[in-house]
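Duplicate of #3305? Posting structure anyway:
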């Protein structure tokens, strides 16, 4: 069985959004007990992390993002090149195992969306759940 859903969020620049609970709800709606949860973000200026949901760590990530691709540098691509570069590094897709009807994340892992673009957006995260026979 394959189950399709999506999550829509309205974002602000340089902000994190924790999606773990919403994605878990979709897993439960699917009825899949064992399988894979595929997250796909059709965006070139935002990305998904599997990380600890800690405010201090989020600030550390923002500092890292600034070092990797500063918004203040001059790039060939106008306006938001840094957003594209960060998304190219971190990516907009993740695959998470499902075991016994639950996302099989590590103890400290959460699904965290980051808006790297320079203006507010409405984003759609595609959620594909595939049942596996184990």
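Output from current build:
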């Amino acid at each position: 069985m394959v189950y399709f859903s999506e999550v829509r969020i309205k974002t602000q620049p340089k902000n994190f959004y924790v999606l773990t609970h919403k994605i878990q709800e979709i897993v439960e709606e699917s009825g899949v007990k064992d399988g894979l949860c595929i997250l796909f973000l059709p965006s070139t200026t935002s990305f998904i992390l599997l990380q600890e949901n800690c405010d201090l760590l989020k600030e550390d990530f923002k500092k890292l993002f600034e070092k990797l691709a500063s918004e203040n540098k001059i790039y060939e691509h106008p306006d938001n090149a840094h957003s594209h570069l960060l998304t190219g590094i971190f990516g907009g897709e993740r695959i998470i195992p499902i075991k016994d009807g639950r996302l099989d994340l590590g103890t400290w892992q959460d699904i965290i969306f980051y808006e790297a673009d320079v203006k507010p957006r409405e984003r759609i995260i595609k959620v594909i759940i595939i049942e596996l026979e184990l």
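Confirmed duplicate; merging threads. The beta strands are 2-11, 15-18, 35-40, 46-51, 93-99, 102-103, 110-115, 121-131. The CA atoms of residues 33 and 101 lie 4 Å apart.
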